[in-house]
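User: Show me a protein chain along with its predicted structure.
Assistant: Here is one chain, sequence first, then structure tokens.
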Amino acid sequence: MTTTQRISGDTLVNLREEYENTQIQEILEQLNSELIGLTPVKTRIREIAALLLIDRLRKQLNLTSTTPGLHMSFTGSPGTGKTTVAIRMADILHRLDYSRKGHLLTVTRDDLVGQYIGHTAPKTKEILKQAMGGILFIDEAYYLYKPDNERDYGSEAIEILLQVMENQRDDLVVIFAGYKEKMDDFYKSNPGLSSRVANHVDFPDYNVEELVSIAKLMLQEQQYRFTREAEVALSQYIEKRMQQPLFANARSIRNAIDRARMRQANRIFASGSKILTKADLVTLEAEDILKS
């Protein structure tokens, strides 16, 4: 990145200064520290941030520029960081003045779709009112569309969303999220929706090493630590758990750690020790993991 770039005549724009003033680097660094792995996701978010920063500079110089499409699709398994990235994306949009408030409102089908005639429109419009000026994050968005149920009102919510995404796109960003395969089917069934989503970000599953690193980061935040044997046991547990149904990446790891903490507490309690050291209270042993 060159520090200063000449646009025309004696007009100069300081790219580095604008970059630092918006503090975008701070948010990107937060993403790196909060999320293990996910290199393709971080790269995509950085690309979007770069596009918006350049667009902001063009507007300052009154250059012809249409606002980039900001509606997004986050696809991937549960526990892969989609909500965390959405929060940071909201921060980026706010600091670059593409979002008035910068808040994130997370909803599901139940928040948008009513159970009887005339109920869906007011529910959806109320959610949109709350989200206006910020980002609306619709988790498991494909449940909005149920073509096999003629009495379902999800299509009404989608129609309202489509209108707002088009007519008020400068004041609301919508992020649709869910499993990739189901989201692909959702977009195929709703081509009008697909055409309004400019940014598709796929969140890959974590591998074993990344999940162990995530577990260690979680423990560090809670002032716990693994013994070497416990770390090996966790790695073996993850390998087995990944092959079982309903595995949810980092979410499953957090659950496993919660169970390990409970077992550690019960192990210490059952030992009957009257005097405990700090090490006793912060250390998770292999047996605390193996009983998961």
